[in-house]
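RETRY 2/3 - previous attempt timed out on the joint model. Re-submitting the same 208-residue input unchanged.
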Amino acid sequence: MAVILLTGFDPFDGAARNPSAEAVETVATGYDGPHDLVVATLPVSFARSAALLRERIAQHSPDAVVCTGLAGGSDRIAVERVGLNLIDARIPDNDGAQPVDQRSDPDGPAARFATLPVKRLVRLLADAGLPARLSLSAGSYVCNHVLYTALSAVPAPVPAGFVHLPWSRSTAPAGAPHLDDEEIARGVRLLVDHCLDDEEAGTGGSLW
Ligand code: PCA
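RETRY 2/3 succeeded.
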């Protein structure tokens, strides 16, 4: 059975909850296959997130890595295409660190393409009636750092990538765009179930 490593994030920026960790928890509860699901909640910390992710990858040798996090202003599930080798924090992380103009990996390339079948996953979500889009970049905060780290840490041809989630209805601040909790969990479940099921997985989607 293929092992899928699925991650979410702790709350950050003063919020009490993060819908990504909650969706991961919901999906993990009672998960009945087709894969072997391993989950982790990552700290919103430049220093600790990458270390924990590398540890989990080494521990479980996953066949695919799907990381998720919150994109607060968005009303769509966004499958990320590129991880940048750039840290430029708009706000401090949960350790109080706010690095700017730094590299995730001083020795790594400027960017790495996500190796999940990104376009196919967007179509899959949309076909399931969920608002979804392809996003070019995961930004320059902790989520991007985790995406870049995941792509550096997995051995080829293990596919890895990142999906930004909107607020869920139950976690959204007043007036913020959101989806139903059920929709977000259903989207994450679809990503887990289908991250490996086609010939594009591990090839950077339809890029080549
Ligand atoms: N979102 C932040 C970090 C943690 C999270 O859930 C980001 O987009 O970088």
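Residues 9, 12, 18, 20, 44, 69-71, 139, 141-143 surround pyroglutamic acid (CB under 6 Å). Closing ticket.
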